[in-house]
């Protein structure tokens, strides 16, 4: 563990769209305050937002743990939701299992996971059907 | 051109975020898929959407757009306006359609999408 790292923790409430995105917005503000380059801040906050929204939409919420060091930003979004039966399929742009209600809100276009991959330098998804999913996103600072 | 000037020239109303009204507009972006917006809208674009739920404020912040434009006189939820005021996100309202806003914007922005 890097003793100079900054660690942040957020609870992600389930099915509460009024608060969805709050953790990502706070992390974005923190990164800006730390003077991280704007393009890195944008990448990080978009990737985290998509993962946060996924946890709200599909898993009834979860938690976000963020570690910021001089080299990289690591975001771990953990939920106790239904898991992803076929990760490869879920990674395909346009594939979505979101409800009509979620789609009416402008989500569920099947772009969440592809966006996370696009904006992260490293993406790891550990998932087990019936148990939950852990999404780890790494964005390099340099 | 600032959001204030753009709103004045095109007759749009400021519904929220009046304190941030001097932000620079770089062009216009129209889309209602939120994931598409956060990954494709240009920084400083004026974003036109028919969505009025709370999430548009978070998306506007992440995409770093200069303002949100709600077309066709669609009413915006009070909670959305309140959040936008808190976060310094400008929301403009107009009776124009998205197309009419774009047609107007084309008079002022050489390259509408940046």
Describe the protein.
The complex is a heterodimer of chains A (about 140) and B (about 110). Chain A is α+β, with helices and mostly antiparallel strands. Chain A has one domain: 2-Layer Sandwich (Heat Shock Protein 90), CATH 3.30.565.10. Helix content of chain A is about 35%, strand content about 30%. The longest helix of chain A has 22 residues. Chain A starts with 5 loop residues before the first strand and ends with a strand. The mean pLDDT of chain A is about 95. Chain B is an alpha/beta fold and about 110 residues long. Chain B has one domain: 3-Layer(aba) Sandwich (Udp-n-acetylmuramoylalanyl-d-glutamate--2,6- Diaminopimelate Ligase, Chain: A, domain 1), CATH 3.40.1390.20. Chain B is about 35% helix and about 15% strand. Chain B is built from 5 helices and 5 strands. In chain B, strands 1-5-4-3-2 form a 5-stranded mixed sheet, with helices on both faces. In chain B, α2 runs parallel beside α3 and α3 runs parallel beside α4. Chain B starts with a helix and ends in a 9-residue tail after the last helix. The model of chain B has no long low-confidence stretch (mean pLDDT about 95). Chains A and B meet through α1, α2 and α5 of A and α2 and α3 of B.
Keywords for this entry:
heterodimer; A: alpha+beta; Heat Shock Protein 90; 5-stranded antiparallel β-sheet; 5 helices; B: alpha/beta; Udp-n-acetylmuramoylalanyl-d-glutamate--2,6- Diaminopimelate Ligase, Chain: A, domain 1; 17% strand; globular
Return residue spans of chain A where pLDDT drops below 50 for at least 5 consecutive residues: none
State the name of the first-level CATH class of chain A. Answer: Alpha Beta
> What is the N-to-C order of secondary-structure elements of chain B (H for helix, E for strand)?
HEEHEHEHEH
Total number of domains of chain B: 1
Number of helices of chain B: 5
Which architecture of chain A per CATH? 2-Layer Sandwich
| CATH fold description of chain A | Heat Shock Protein 90
In DSSP terms (H or I, runs of 4 or more residues), the helix count of chain A works out at: 5
**Total beta strand runs of chain A:** 5
Which descriptor suits the 3D outline of chain A?
globular
The structure class of chain B reads alpha/beta
pLDDT average of chain A, as an integer? 93
> Quick check: average pLDDT of chain B?
94
State the shape of chain B: globular
Strand order of the largest sheet of chain A: 1-2-3-5-4
């Amino acid at each position: 563990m890097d003793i100079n790292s900054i660690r942040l923790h957020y609870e992600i409430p389930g099915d509460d769209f009024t608060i969805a995105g709050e953790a990502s917005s706070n992390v974005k503000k923190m990164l800006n305050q730390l003077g991280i380059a704007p393009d890195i801040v944008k990448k990080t906050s978009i990737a985290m937002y998509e993962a946060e929204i996924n946890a709200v939409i599909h898993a009834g919420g979860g938690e976000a743990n963020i570690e910021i060091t001089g080299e990289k930003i690591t975001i771990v979004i953990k939920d106790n939701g239904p898991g992803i039966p076929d990760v490869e399929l879920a990674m395909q742009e346009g594939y979505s299992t979101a409800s009509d209600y979620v789609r009416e809100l402008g989500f569920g276009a099947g772009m969440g996971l592809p966006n996370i991959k696009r904006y992260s330098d490293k993406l790891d998804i550990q998932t087990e059907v019936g148990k939950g999913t852990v999404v780890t996103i790494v964005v390099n600072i340099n | 051109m600032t959001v204030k000037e753009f709103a004045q020239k095109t007759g749009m109303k400021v519904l929220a975020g009046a304190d941030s009204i001097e932000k620079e507009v770089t062009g216009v972006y129209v889309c209602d898929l939120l994931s598409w917006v956060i990954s494709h809208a240009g920084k400083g674009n004026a974003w036109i959407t028919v969505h009025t739920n709370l999430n548009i404020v978070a998306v506007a912040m992440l995409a770093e757009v200069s303002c949100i434009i709600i077309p066709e006189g669609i009413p915006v939820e009070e909670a959305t306006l309140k959040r936008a005021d808190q976060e310094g996100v400008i929301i403009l309202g107009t009776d124009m359609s998205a197309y009419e806003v774009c047609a107007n914007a084309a008079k002022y922005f050489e390259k509408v999408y940046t």
